Amino acid sequence: MDRVPSPLPSLPPPARALLLGFVAGLRSQVPVALLAVEAAQGRFDPGGGRLARRFASPEGVVGAVLACAGELVADKLPATPSRLTPGPFLQRLATGGTVGAAVHYDAGRPRALGALLGAAGAGAGAFAGTRARALAAERTAVPAPLLGAAEDLVAVALAVAVVGAAPDRG
User: Is residue 151 part of a domain?
Assistant: First the structure.
């Protein structure tokens, strides 16, 4: 199966790591789910280790997609803590770093740089998403769950565009 056409040109690995990290700051499981699907379809190499092989397995894809769906629902619940509280923030940094390292591995680049870029992107995404949502809530009468759904769409669209862009291997 071919990639979904992306509006983005080919992207160098550092840009892919940074942007997918940014998405992880918005919705941490979105890039994980998309990369799991890509890996299962043979368009992304998560690595040769045992965990990487499980990531690309049918069970791994189902788990990643269910985790993503769960996050998209949980984000709208009033009891869900801010993504900037220590636990959720550190989890987003870790997920962004992992995604960034995986993207760099797939491109034959140093994982450490990918991890740093992914984590930096996740931190920026977490702060930007929180600020954008707060500004939208202050300036509009849109209910919070709808603002969250709009943020979901932004996160998914950006991730699909980045994952669908041909990796620049240069």
Answer: yes
